[in-house]
Amino acid sequence: MERRRTAGTGSATAVGAPRVSLRTEQRDLTRNRILDGAVEVFAAKSSVAATMEDIARAAGVTRATVYAHFRGKAEVVAALTDRVYQVSDSLYAELAAVPEWTRATVREWLEHAAASWRALAPTIRVLLAATPSAAGDDGSARDRYLAAHERYVALLTAPPRRWRRVTPAQARQRALMAVLQTGSFLTAWIAGGLPVDTDDPLELLTDDLCHLLRPALAGRPAAPRRPPGPS
């Protein structure tokens, strides 16, 4: 099914699917304007110093409108975190849906992931700078992080036949390491601005991911069976 990407959110809508109501569409547009305003304000003043009035001014809406969507800054930060998870969910679902993993398809996916991370970079930077108090962190952030990575691993390890050359435990660890390496590198390089002294950083990342995903890559010959030993 053809899908159309929604700018700024990383979500995709099936072409031909029933449209949401105009009221819902307008509400979502306003919510995203508020979140865009929050990113601008948090980048300039930090999530601690910023006020809901600052966010309203940056978004071009009233303070009452901001409070109609969010009860406070903690909810704003949580919604910004949702943006990142939504894009990540979409990216790993796309990789999982690739019929055959090859070096070429992994590289193509990484290019798309890097482009998505560039669009998310301002949001990721303010989230990295946000304090636990600004996020109202009561342990839920950790739980969401773990749950998200469980989703990504589940996506990448299905169907099991892709990983028939290794045990389920090995497949799970390889998938988890691939997810962690991808997210950490893109965040440090693109959002964090960490210098990378290579002409093509994605080429090296492709090498690493192909090594981790090697048992599931298409065209890889099965390991030779060891002849039975003497009885």
Automatic annotation (TrEMBL):
InterPro entries: DNA-bd_HTH_TetR-type_CS (IPR023772), Homeodomain-like_sf (IPR009057), HTH-type_TetR-like_transc_reg (IPR050109), HTH_TetR (IPR001647). PROSITE patterns: HTH_TETR_1, HTH_TETR_2. GO terms for molecular function: DNA-binding transcription factor activity; transcription cis-regulatory region binding. It comes from Actinacidiphila glaucinigra. Keywords: DNA-binding, Transcription, Transcription regulation. Coiled coil: none annotated. This is Transcriptional regulator, TetR family. Residues 28-88 form the HTH tetR-type domain. The keyword DNA-binding applies. The keyword Transcription applies.
